[in-house]
Design a protein that fits this description.
Layout (H helix, E strand, L loop, with lengths): L4 E4 L4 E11 L2 E10 L9 E4 L1 H25 L5 E6 L4 E6 L6 H16 L4 E7 H7 L12 E7 L3 E4 L14 E10 L2 E8 H21 L7 H36 L4
Antiparallel strand pairs: 1-2, 1-4, 2-3, 5-6, 6-11, 7-8, 8-9, 10-11
């Protein structure tokens, strides 16, 4: 998604909510005038919301790491089929013929975080399309590229053609956390994930849920699995006992009816 921020001068203030590019080299700012009035040829200073931009950068750079990690774990047939990168989360659609196993998802999350911790430099440069392809840069099928393209390279791990905003190093992602994997069509899977502060919030929420469950079953969090296993076993035994008692009761009720038969 585009940056958000403000356009300001001494007597004008505009909140920029969205930036679009309807045609090449034309950028349209959509927003709300908070103060003053525009004048033709008036100069304004742009102030980007740096916190939102950084969050978007984390998710964008992490998407490149995710794409390459999927290729390494599932195979070279994996290709991007759509994506969404915003400050709060990332969504990545890719070609694959079946759902990922829990083991594959665990490997994927570990792989991305290993590359994050490797603190690889993120470099961007422009070159010709032919040169970029010769170097092995990943291009998106169906995407229209000009003669000059922008390459985003992350160490020796990932190299893609991309025009978006990125981090300076993979370490700035902070933490990468998978939150979902699902199907969006025949042969198309979807990964959803969070990074940075959102990943921390996600982990904190999971810990709160764990503590709430531990409190309900009266056990410490580290004893929760054993406690729940014992409760499940107990419930199963009670269910079996209940079924046996119900069968006995039914038998006595039938006998009682037979004893009261009159011709």
């Amino acid at each position: 998604v585009s940056d958000k921020g403000r356009l300001i001068s001494s007597d004008v203030e505009v909140e920029v909510l969205k930036v679009t590019k309807p045609v090449e080299n034309l950028f349209v700012h959509k927003g709300k005038v908070l103060k003053g009035n525009f004048k033709v040829a008036q100069q304004l200073t742009g102030q980007v919301d740096s916190k939102k931009r950084m969050a978007t950068c984390r998710n964008h750079s992490a998407t490149h790491l995710l794409h390459q990690s999927l290729k390494e774990i599932l195979g070279p047939h994996v290709n991007q089929a759509g994506s969404l990168v915003e400050p709060e989360r990332l969504r990545f659609d890719f070609t694959h013929y079946k759902s990922m196993t829990p083991q594959e998802l665990k490997m994927l999350e570990e792989k991305v975080n290993q590359v994050v911790l490797a603190n690889l430099p993120v470099e961007t440069y422009e070159t010709t399309l032919e040169e970029a392809k010769a170097l092995g840069a990943t291009a998106l099928f169906g995407e229209k590229y000009g003669d000059q393209v922008r390459v985003v390279k992350m160490g020796d791990f990932s190299m893609e053609l991309c025009g978006g905003t990125h981090l300076r190093s993979t370490a700035e992602v902070g933490l990468f956390k998978l939150v979902g994997e699902s199907s969006v069509g025949a042969g198309i899977r979807r990964i959803e994930a969070v990074t940075g502060e959102e990943a921390l919030r996600y982990v904190n929420k999971k810990e709160e849920q764990l503590e709430a469950v531990a409190k309900l079953v009266k056990a410490a969090p580290h004893e929760l699995v054993h406690r729940v296993e014992a409760l499940v076993k107990n419930v199963k035994e009670l269910e079996n006992e209940s079924e046996a008692l119900q069968a006995k009761l039914a038998k006595y009720q039938v006998q009682d009816l037979l004893d009261r038969v009159r011709e």
